[in-house]
Amino acid sequence: MYESNTLDPSTPTYVLSNLLELNVDTTTLSTTLLGYDAYSSQFAHDDVARTYCHISSQLPTGYRREWGGLEIIGGGVEAGYAGSPLVTLSCRTDGQVLTERLQPTSLGLQALTGVGRTRARQLRDAGFTSRERIATTDIATLAAVRGFGRLTAERVQQSAQAIANNEVVRTTEKPLPSGKPVYIDIETDGLSPTITWLIGVLDGSSADGEYLSFLQTDPDEPAGALEEFMHWYTTTASHRPLVAYNGWQFDFDVIQDHIIEYCPQYETDWTSIYRFDPYQWAVKDGNAILPGRTNKLEDVATALGYEPMAEEITGEMVARIYQQWMTNQSSATEPEWNTFEIYCEDDVRGLATVYEALKASSRIVSTDAPSRDTGASTTQGQLSDW
Amino acid sequence: MSSDSNTSDSPITAQALERTVPRYEGQLKHAEIISAEDGKYVDSRTVLRGDLAVRFSEAIGDLFTHQARALDQLAAGNNVCVTTATASGKTYVYALQIARNYLSDPGSTALLLYPTKALSRDQEQALTEFFAVLGLDLAVAVYDGDTPQDRRRHIRETADVIITNFSGVNAYLGHHTRWSSFFSSCATIAIDESHTYTGVHGMHVAWTIRRLRRILAHYGSDPQLVCTSATIGNPTEHAERLTGKPFTVVDEDGSPRGKREIVFWKPPLDEAVLEADATFEDFRNAQTNPVREAGSLLAHFGLHGLQSLVFTRSRKNAELGAKYATDAAGTHPRSGQLRAKPYHAGLGKETRRNTEYQFKNGQLDGLTSTNALELGIDIGSMDTTVLTGYPGTRQSFWQQVGRSGRGDSDALSVFIARADAIDQYILDHPEYVLKDGVEEAVIGLENNPVYAQHVLCAAHEQPLEDADREWFDGERLDRAVGMWSDAGKLTGDLSRSVRYMGSPRPQSEISMYATSNTQFDVRCPDGEIDMEPVDRERAYRDHHEGALFLHSGAQYEVIEFEEDRPNPYIAVREVQTNEYTETSSEKTIRDLESEATRDLGDGYQLSWGTGIIEIHYTHHQRKDIRTGETTTSLQPTGLPPLELNTHLVWIELPPSIETTILEEATNMDPASLSDGERMEVFGGGLHGAEHGMIKLTPLELRMDKSDLGGLSTPRHAVTDVPTWFIHDAVEGGLGFSKRIYDQFGTIAERTRERVASCECTGTNGCPACIMDSQCRNQNQYLHTEATVHVLETVLEQLG
């Protein structure tokens, strides 16, 4: 193994390999880190190795644990193999590693709605090698591609235009909810959350709406943020639609569970709120095609021109930091609350950007286009986007 | 059905069957008439509160004595397990308890758990009607995988009684907050057919119940439990291991019984063709295949206008049975059209529903089914049932027998013995199945792989704390938490809280019938196949590349075996051959660690503990179905060895025993025997003892003999002395080998009796004593006399 002598000791050093792997033996109730001895013996100085972050691509993303004094981090097992997502790692100067998953199918022509491997090949065979080309070509030419008909061609072109022009393309005339929306985003302690500790709310427009944050720093009081938020909503915003991106897959369910668990007095108030999920409405119900490399909120909002205020972080990382705080509350583990409030604000302002674009987009490209097929591609969308 | 079913020719009694069956060759060995029996009753007013007693006695009548006793126990605050006969009104016990609770607290709820979805639907209707008759406004609803999404919330929030199954509970615990109102009022949990929860499935259910009780406690509930069970040897222990609560058992049956006959039937065996050194194949060919015999009986009954249900022991035989029946109808003196169909869980849901419907409506003369039809699926009643072989437990035997009988008319059941040790034992001793139940139902709570999965789910449902050691077996929880923390699935420590960090919904990773979740999908690229996924062990054994198998009346060949991918699969194609596949394997046992040992003195030692069993399915070849002759050369399977880290029991013998056994078994000077002869006799004795004990253990324990495996050798690499092993056939163990360790003497004695009294000639044994169809050594080196001497010696030492 090569070790440089010119590393800057003031910033973290990352070692990336595929040498460390977990063996979880449920029969003996023990987990071992395969390859550890051979790996650790490669470092000339133990104490130096201990200051490094050791990433192995054979460990699952999100994995982080100390083994024999070494900080071991998961870099995404099976990344990019047999249809599984590609993983990008951002190794930050504060020692945090961000992982992002990207479906191979969200790249190139396959990023277009209705285009899988077969149609991508048919398009390439017909000379359409870029999305821009598809966006601007004559619809009749596109419809003449082998395996395409007019409806398919229209649908594929709409998708290409959305991406190429960074705009929302409406495919139906279904109206958005009336009423002034309240945008929300929540932070929890993971994908199987036990606490909703931050609810970011945007009251007003993306550009100049008022941002409110309902924060609960004490993990032993899981009702705190919810009670404050529900009090605010019922007294000042009642009857306005509550909007959350991917809300039907996460935020709305989590809030409901936690209200029942921690502050059941608000259950009826909660269930009578009109809730709206632009992701569900646009992508899954097929009412609009969103721009952006993926349908993730950050990608869509950025494509629509939103400029984030904060450095990029992920929900996964936020949850992990709060978990550490829950496990051991000390000044060393106390999260920088302000950073997360800004992160959350970025999300609700981005969300407002998307919602406003949907609202503004009255251009129905094809009024006779059927609602888009939400079959197999939707399932993948869920997995890859979240 | 035609109209002549009540004429004197109708083969609905043992006598008539003997007289009418074509080409009768003395198959009938024993006929048992079970006469009708009067019921024993108690006035419901002595048990139930006034208004309820009046409504019950008006609508139904008096209570049976066992119902009254169970209700009294429940009133005293105990958990009750009722183990009386099928159709003895066990349901009324918990239904009346629910009614009582409702009258004293209308807000109370009850959760009822049934082993199958079909049974749930039947009971929903029955209970709704029952409560209506009592004039009680109780809402009963099934809530399971088939419940529409838009109905679910309504049911959770309004039903008084919810009927579901344990796969459902496992999943619903993942979002228990939605159940908070139902759970916080839960006063009763009833577990129906609780004896069915044994083996791997039993372990999953036992841990699911602990998770459920833990969440109920979180909502402030500690409901009373009612188990209803068929007769088993250890009802109290079983209910307590299943649920973790103390139980009172009610087993004195007060219900009346109708008249039926049970016939014990031995398929004709052409002994003349058998040489003294006959092989397993020879026996198989000499005896009329019991499934073929069942097919003939089904045809005979059907052509006399009697509808029959034939139980077979495998999916393959269910398929074959229907075919044999149709063939037999063609050569029957009454020759005519016979409508018979196979039924088993490997068929798709739609095919099964369709067959159930046709049978129920009389469009079929018969069904040949696996035990998939044993539990309560409503296909109506039929005139006769035919059992091809002992179903493995006395309780299953009665359940299968009990399916026949229409109203108060006569019912007939035929038990056809296979050429198998247990079946032959039962032909010799029909009293064994006719007397009280003896099998014990075993739940191996010590299996770690299953336990560990449920710990992970529990952490997801509610963070784990110190107090949770009470639910999850004390210090063992610390080890599981340590393992999952190192694996990145849990974080924190028990003194504060251990939280779940893995992917969402770990409950969906649990397969309630397997210890691992590796399952192979079955695909047919150039055709169609409607077959459920197969688990890893079975795929290695029966579905390696080149293997032939039957499914839904068609024969298939495995053309692709893909394991190294996220969703393993096998690809098959339909073929037509007259062959079957025989797979050979090698087995080794290593890394033995004993956890309990009994030194029997003089170099005899009995041990129980853990070890690694390596099974390598190395080669396969094809054989002709009729002649058993090899039709292809030995082909490699291309599979790596399977490793099983599991529990096993083994007995070590002093090397000096070899000389003694050789003398006793051959009456010759051991010194004059060649090495090969010594192996044949002494090795054959050890091998026979191992086989015999595995084959007869199901007489004591509720299990299938394929839940066990074995190995014997005159000198084992680890123990260095003559040894035989019996191991649990599942990763992490099933609890059976421990029971064999505990009951070694009883099982060895039964085995000795069976082998000593077997009528087979020569010393190679026969399928009725020590030959075993699952033997991977083609039953090579078996010696009956040496087996008896080996067992006698060990029994003497046991004292």
Automatic annotation (TrEMBL), chain A:
<dbReference type="InterPro" id="IPR010995">
    <property type="entry name" value="DNA_repair_Rad51/TF_NusA_a-hlx"/>
</dbReference>
<dbReference type="Pfam" id="PF14520">
    <property type="entry name" value="HHH_5"/>
</dbReference>
<dbReference type="GO" id="GO:0003676">
    <property type="term" value="F:nucleic acid binding"/>
</dbReference>
<dbReference type="GO" id="GO:0000166">
    <property type="term" value="F:nucleotide binding"/>
</dbReference>
<dbReference type="InterPro" id="IPR036397">
    <property type="entry name" value="RNaseH_sf"/>
</dbReference>
<dbReference type="InterPro" id="IPR038720">
    <property type="entry name" value="YprB_RNase_H-like_dom"/>
</dbReference>
<protein>
    <submittedName>
        <fullName>DNA repair and recombination protein RadA</fullName>
    </submittedName>
</protein>
<dbReference type="Pfam" id="PF13482">
    <property type="entry name" value="RNase_H_2"/>
</dbReference>
<dbReference type="InterPro" id="IPR012337">
    <property type="entry name" value="RNaseH-like_sf"/>
</dbReference>
<feature type="domain" description="YprB ribonuclease H-like">
    <location>
        <begin position="182"/>
        <end position="358"/>
    </location>
</feature>
<feature type="region of interest" description="Disordered">
    <location>
        <begin position="366"/>
        <end position="386"/>
    </location>
</feature>
UniProtKB/TrEMBL annotation, chain B:
<keyword id="KW-0347">Helicase</keyword>
<dbReference type="Pfam" id="PF00270">
    <property type="entry name" value="DEAD"/>
</dbReference>
<dbReference type="InterPro" id="IPR027417">
    <property type="entry name" value="P-loop_NTPase"/>
</dbReference>
<keyword id="KW-0378">Hydrolase</keyword>
<keyword id="KW-0067">ATP-binding</keyword>
<dbReference type="InterPro" id="IPR018973">
    <property type="entry name" value="MZB"/>
</dbReference>
<keyword id="KW-0547">Nucleotide-binding</keyword>
<protein>
    <submittedName>
        <fullName>ATP-dependent DNA helicase</fullName>
        <ecNumber>3.6.4.12</ecNumber>
    </submittedName>
</protein>
<dbReference type="GO" id="GO:0036297">
    <property type="term" value="P:interstrand cross-link repair"/>
</dbReference>
<dbReference type="InterPro" id="IPR014001">
    <property type="entry name" value="Helicase_ATP-bd"/>
</dbReference>
<dbReference type="GO" id="GO:0003676">
    <property type="term" value="F:nucleic acid binding"/>
</dbReference>
<dbReference type="GO" id="GO:0005524">
    <property type="term" value="F:ATP binding"/>
</dbReference>
<feature type="domain" description="Helicase C-terminal">
    <location>
        <begin position="296"/>
        <end position="449"/>
    </location>
</feature>
<dbReference type="GO" id="GO:0006289">
    <property type="term" value="P:nucleotide-excision repair"/>
</dbReference>
<dbReference type="Pfam" id="PF22982">
    <property type="entry name" value="WHD_HRQ1"/>
</dbReference>
<dbReference type="InterPro" id="IPR001650">
    <property type="entry name" value="Helicase_C-like"/>
</dbReference>
<dbReference type="GO" id="GO:0016787">
    <property type="term" value="F:hydrolase activity"/>
</dbReference>
<dbReference type="InterPro" id="IPR055227">
    <property type="entry name" value="HRQ1_WHD"/>
</dbReference>
<dbReference type="Pfam" id="PF09369">
    <property type="entry name" value="MZB"/>
</dbReference>
<dbReference type="GO" id="GO:0043138">
    <property type="term" value="F:3'-5' DNA helicase activity"/>
</dbReference>
<feature type="domain" description="Helicase ATP-binding">
    <location>
        <begin position="71"/>
        <end position="250"/>
    </location>
</feature>
<dbReference type="Pfam" id="PF00271">
    <property type="entry name" value="Helicase_C"/>
</dbReference>
